[in-house]
Amino acid sequence: MKNFIQERSLKVIDLFAGCGGLSLGFQNASFEILAAFDNWQPAINVYSKNFKHQVFNCDLSKENSNFYRFMDLSPDVIIGGPPCQDFSSAGKRNEDLGRGDLSIKFAEIVAKIKPKWFVMENVDRFTKSKKYVEFRQILKSSSYGLTEKILDASYYGVPQRRKRFFCIGEIGNQDQTLQPFLEANLDNKPMSIRDYLGNKLGIKNYYRHPRSYQRRAIFSIDEPSPTIRGVNRPIPKNYKQHPGDAALLTPDLRPLTTIERSYIQTFPDDFIFEGSKTDLEQMIANAVPVKLAEYVAKSILMYIRNFG
Length: 308
Known about the structure:
The protein is of the alpha/beta class. 31% of the residues lie in helices and 16% in strands. It has helices at residues 2-7, 21-28, 41-50, 68-71, 101-113, 130-141, 179-182, 193-197, 258-264, 277-286, 290-307; strands at 11-14, 32-38, 54-57, 77-80, 117-123, 144-152, 163-171, 205-207, 218-220. The chain is globular.
C-alpha cells in the first residue's frame, strides 16, 4: 500500500455531495474525486461550477441493489454525508421520515462495492438511532473495521462549534485503528473566528438568530461561531438583550452575510456560490466544513503511510 500511495492518488466518489464541502476537503488532501452524486439541483449547480469532475443528479433511495454505476468507477474510497435532518436536534428527530434510510443505502452501496475505505459523516445524534445500529451491522458484516468518533470542528481547523459523527471504515482491519491519527494534530484550544479570518469581516460582534429567545444571539469573533444553520434572519425589532450576549445591541450590529457564513464553513474565497439566498443558506449550513473534511482525509493518509 505504501508503494501504491506513492504511485497515484486514492480515487474517491462522493455519494451525498451537496455543494462540495466533503469533496473539496478530500481533494485538498490530494485524493482524486472521480464523480459526485446528489439529487438537489441547486446544490448540484453550485458543485458543478467548482469542480472539474462530473456530478450526477441521482436519487440514491431509488437505486437498485446492483449499483453498477458506482461499481464501474472502481473507487478506492466512498465518502458521503447522508441527509441528517431526521436525526438532528434542529429537526423533528423522527428517523422514520425517510431520509434516515439514506444512511442505510450508503452502507449497502459500500458493502456491495467494497472499496478499501469509506468515510460517512452525520450529526452526533445519529449514534443514538436505530438506523445507526442497522448501518453498523451492514458494514461489520462486510468485514470493515470501523473508527467511530464525534469531532468538534473547532479543534480541527474550523472556527465553529460543530459536533459531527464520523465513521471511517477500512476493509479487513480492526475497529478504532485510526483514532490516534484523528487526534494527532488537534488544536489545543477551540478556533475563534478571529483566529481563522483575522479582521476580514470588519466587525467585532454579530447577530445569529437563536432557536429560542431563551438563548443568546449576539456573538464575538473572538470565540468560535455556533453551528451554522439554514436559518439566517435579521435582528427582530423587538429583540430583547439576553444576559449571555457577547455585546450590547447597537444600530450597527448585523447578522453574517451568506458568503461570510461560507467562510465559517471554511469554503475558500474563490468558491462560487450562485442561486437563491434561501437555497444557498441551506446548502452552506448542510455542508461538511472543508477544513474538517481535509483533516480527516489527511489522517487517513497519515495512517496509510505508517501502517498501510
